[in-house]
Amino acid sequence: MSGQTLFDKLWASHAIRTEDDGTSLLWVDRHLLTEGSHHAFGKLAERGLELAEPSLTFAVADHYVPTRTQLKAQWNADSRRMIDTLERNAARHGLRHFGPADPRQGIAHVIGPEQGLTLPGLLIVCGDSHTSTHGAFGTLGLGIGATEVAHVMATQTIRVVRPKTLRIRFDGMLGPGVGAKDMALAWIAQIGADGARGHAIEYAGDAVTALSMEGRMTLCNLSIEGGARLGMVAPDAITIAYVEGRTYAPAGPHWDAAVREWTELRSDEDADFDAELVLQAGDIAPFVTWGTSPDDALPITACLPDPATLPADKAEKVREALDYMGLEAGRPLAGTPVDQVFIGSCANGRIEDLRLAARVLESRKACVPGLVSPGSSLVKAQAEAEGLDRVFREAGLEWAGSGCSMCVGMNGDIVAPGKRCAATSNRNFRGRQGPGARTHLMSPAMAAAAAVTGELTDARQLLEDRL
Amino acid sequence: MKSGWTTHRGIAVALPIEGINTDQLMPARFMSTPRDQGYAKYLLHDLRRDSGGELAPDFPLNRPEAGDASILVARRNFGGGSSREAAVYALVDAGIRAVIAPSFGDIFAGNAANNGLLAAQVTEQDAGRLLAALESAPAPADVDLEGGSITIRDLRVAFNVDEVRRLKIINNWDDIDLTRNHSAQIAAYRKRLQITRPWVFPRD
Q1: To probe the interface with A, which of B31, B168, B195, B199 has the most A CB atoms within 10 Å?
Q2: In CA terms, which of A44, A66, A267, A341 is 20 to 30 Å from A51?
Q3: Are B35 and A42 within 8 A, CB to CB?
Q4: Which one of A47, A194, A258 has the shortest CB-CB distance to B103?
């Protein structure tokens, strides 16, 4: 009999019962709520139900939080209503709530790990697809819909059909100036935006274990962009060092017990995965998306696809994407002019991301405008303590508050119609950053390089002697 | 949706587009709207309009014959991306009962079943056949949820839907009710967790 995968072990440890139809009822260790929870709170109220486990439920305002002013009087009506509603619901149910004025406020997927709420071996859910981010800790991170959010609120459990397992292995080491974002876009480009559909991913290999926690979070964050249910990295010494001493993390004897368990938490040598994908890390160049789906991604050294050379069923989609993006078929990707940059989001809004972008921008000027929105208020404070805000400001970029910001535009930070944005976020869908907006996804180094040159640029050229 | 269903007859419309994600189904900027105001008007709001903001007359859902559509046939990876259940609300509020496609975003498929919306998976080839049958105009179609098939005129195509979701739609099951039947088992799990893995509970 073959061994168990990390996923098998976590699934087994959370299964309360399994139905004949294959659905398992799983225990939820942490439930993160954002402003979108209003639908679920409504469902709960309709049925007159209370929250089952308020002490395992944490609320944070992120999607609607204005990043350019803390003055509530200047917020738009949507932001005010959504943020107030969350605050009211959190107060009514006695939840810990990180509101806009809280120094710990930030994007749910940034503050969970930051506060020590995200721990190896847990199951974390949130009504947001990028909950896969938490998998970086060896955690089941499931994005769920509003009906499921209400179910978790009422029962602290979730009913899930067991996904299959997929191991994505990155052999060898990344070259300088190449990072987790490039790894993510590389595998998604290879197998498609629905290539990992129905699967739980475990990322493995030397290039993965060499990543910092920030890098692992970026990699796991984009799991959903390849269609996966979740993505994970087995915990190791890097994970444990990151978690130790954080506000809500275990301490004393509980810490010792936890570490003993986490040290064993990995796939067995002889574990079987339903599918496996192997990439050579050394071959990965900085990636950029050119189209309207995350799998429309290419190395910066490549040329845009040409529908004329593609089979009819592929050509149509490429033609439409190029048309929406205002790009010419077959042209080199590098040198494409951009109108603005966005650095932030749950994909790349952590301190290392800002350090890397600042390294490119140090003593240089941006020739296009840009918005830098740290992933949390604590990341912001840390960046300011390190003088990174000064680098961004002196380069001519706007240093803003934390939130989902221009990744999804719900707080009013949007890209104007037809404008082209070099963004460190995770979705390049039509209109994602605002109606008619054109988004190119890339790493923080690449976005910073685009700011400096005003066009899509191989960041490695600007990082020479700076790494 | 107030009750479950097993068969449905309605107008089917072809949306021959790949990767219609939930951002397209329900653009983010409308998501602060209370549900009771209805989400039908937001369904595919931007995709069905031209750059000037006018409804594009040749977009399939904008054609007059598509006015009463309740079945959509699309290409692969329908409903990928954001977990927003509002995408399903927009479809349901617009009267859509079934979406037929070669593949669906996992979260979307779960959200759909939780709202009585069928996300029926067909092969690429069968999706092509259905799209061809609807190419010239929307047409009446019969969805048989128990038998797992959709019929348009003389074309009958089998579809797959996860068994749990099929039963949920047929019986209009509510997960909270189902789970609350097991509350003793949940309580026992929690108690055991506190003893065997107390570190799981957040320090305060």
Answers
A1: B199
A2: A66
A3: yes
A4: A194
- pLDDT at position A313 is 82
- Edge-to-edge strand list for the sheet holding A96-98: A96-98, A57-60, A30-33, A123-126, A140-143
User: Which DSSP category does A137 fall into?
Assistant: G
- φ/ψ of A181, rounded to 5, equals -65, -40
Task: Please provide residue B179's backbone torsions phi and psi, each rounded to the nearest 5 degrees.
Answer: -70, -35
Kindly state whether residue B181 falls inside one of the protein's structural domains.
Answer: no
- Contact with chain A for residue B179, Cβ under 8 A: yes
Look at A156 and B186 and tell me if their CB atoms are within 8 Å: yes
User: What is the pLDDT at residue B41?
Assistant: 97
DSSP letter at A150 equals H
Min CA distance, A52 vs chain B (Å)? 11
Q: Check residue B2 and give its pLDDT.
A: 61
| pLDDT, tens only, B171-198 | 999 999 999 999 999 999 999 999 999 9
Q: Per the CB < 8 Å rule, is A224 touching B81?
A: yes
In this prediction, residue A221 carries a pLDDT of 98
Predicted complex ipTM exceeds 0.90: yes
CATH class as words, domain A287-463: alpha beta
Residue A69: predicted pLDDT: 85
Q: What is the mean pLDDT of residues B42-56?
A: 95
B128 interfacial to chain A (CB closer than 8 Å): no
CATH code, domain carrying B167: 3.20.19.10
CA–CA–CA angle A296, A298, A302 (5° rounding):
135
- Cα A7 from Cα A26, distance rounded (Å): 13
pLDDT of residue B51: 83
Instruction: Express each pLDDT in A135-179 by its tens digit.
Output: 999 999 999 999 999 999 999 999 999 999 999 999 999 999 999
Helix (H) / strand (E) element for A445: namely helix A444-453
Cβ contacts below 8 Å, chain A against chain B, sum to: 175
Best mutation target, B175, B185, B192, B196, to test chain A (most A CBs within 10 A) = B175
In a domain, B203, yes or no: no
Identify all chain A residues contacting B82, using CB atoms and an 8 Å cutoff.
128-129, 427
Q: Which residues of A touch B113 (CB under 8 A)?
A: none
The predicted-structure confidence for A176-187, as pLDDT tens digits, reads as follows 999 999 999 999
Q: Which of B18, B81, B83 sits opposite A427 (nearest CB)?
A: B81
Contact list in A for residue B19 (CB cut-off 8 A) is 193-194, 293, 317
For the domain made up of A6-275, the CATH class stated in words is alpha beta
Q: Please give, rounded to a whole number of angstroms, the shortest distance from the CA of A308 to a CA of chain B.
A: 19
Categorize the per-residue pLDDT at A22 as very low, low, confident or very high, splitting at 50, 70 and 90: confident
The answer to whether the CB atoms of B32 and A81 lie below 8 A apart is yes
Per-residue confidence (pLDDT) for residue A362, from 0 to 100: 98
Query: What digits encode the pLDDT tens for the residues A378-426?
Result: 999 999 999 999 999 999 999 999 999 999 999 999 999 999 999 999 9
B57: closest CA of chain A, how far (Å) = 18
Half-sphere exposure of B153 (CA within 13 A, CB side): 9
Crossing angle (nearest 10°) for helices A351-361 and A213-221: 100
Task: Report percent pLDDT > 90 for chain B.
Answer: 97
Of A22, A36, A145, the CB nearest to B31: A36
B189 contacts A227? CB cut-off 8 A: no
Look at residue A330 and tell me whether its pLDDT is greater than 80. Answer: yes
On whether residue B147 sits in a domain, the answer given is yes
* End-to-end Cα spacing for chain B: 41
Taking residue B137's Cβ as centre, other Cβ atoms within 10 Å add up to 12
| Domain of B58, in residue numbers | 7-173
What total number of domains does chain B contain? Answer: 1
